[in-house]
Amino acid sequence: MISRVEGRLVAKDLDSLEVITGGGVAYELTIPLNVFEATPRVGETVSLHTSLVVKEDSWQLFGFVSVFEKRLFEKLLTANGIGPSLAIGMLSALSATRLIRAIREKDIPTLQSVPRVGRKKAERLILDLSDKLDGLGETTGTAAAPASAAADDALRALVSLGYSNAEAEKGVRAALDAGGAGKSAAELIRTALAKLGGR
Asked: Which residue, 27, 6, 31, is CA-closest to 18?
């Protein structure tokens, strides 16, 4: 199993990275939004924890800043109806700690703020995982948590202003792509509103 990838970052997008190791092997990793925020510029060295998802027709490698997030991703995959794409989407829309809190506290509205998660899926997630989230190494945290929390807060604020979840996520992603990594929620909201054209 490939549990960690370390090497030079050769390509970086909002949802994927390409890393070439010292041995000359290049790995493409699918990532949640906070990993994009936390990783350095192209050309610099990066080290990520990884989870390999094997299907009949493909192998897909997912990258995470911390073991905590990797374990949460793998736990999400054990829930009924949650595939890798949706699990990554959940970790992009909500910080890992907030996602765990929402599941434990049966906070359906917060779970529904994630694109493609409706009430039934939120209820199923709670049923499957609410008592199974201990021992993930939650106290380890990640350096990217503040940025992820700011993006999370900005997303919620845009939804409260009347934007759909998809529109809000698009705006926040555009704000981050425009150099918003490390910015406060208020700064992300202002940039996202400009990108979305205001209301």
From this structure: 27
Span between the terminal Cα atoms of the chain, in Å = 48
pLDDT at 42 exceeding the cut of 50: yes
Whether 57 and 73 map to the same domain: the answer is no
In 3-state terms the chain splits into helix, strand, coil percentages (rounded to 5) of 50, 20, 35
Residue 118 sits in a domain whose CATH number is 1.10.150.20
d(CA 99, CA 122): 11
Q: State which amino acid sits at residue 189.
A: I
Confidence of residue 185 (pLDDT cuts 50, 70, 90): confident
Final residue of a structural domain among 35, 64, 93: 64
Place of tokens 């909002």: 14
Q: Which of 43, 19, 48 is nearest to 32 (CA)?
A: 48
Q: Determine the average pLDDT of the residues in 136-157.
A: 61
Show the domain range for 159. Answer: 145-196
Per the CB < 8 A criterion, the answer to whether 35 and 9 are in contact is no
Q: What is the pLDDT of residue 198?
A: 60
Note the pLDDT of residue 47.
94
Return the percentage of the chain with pLDDT > 70, whole number: 91
Contacts (Cβ under 8 Å, ≥6 apart) of 68: 96, 136, 137, 138, 140, 141, 142
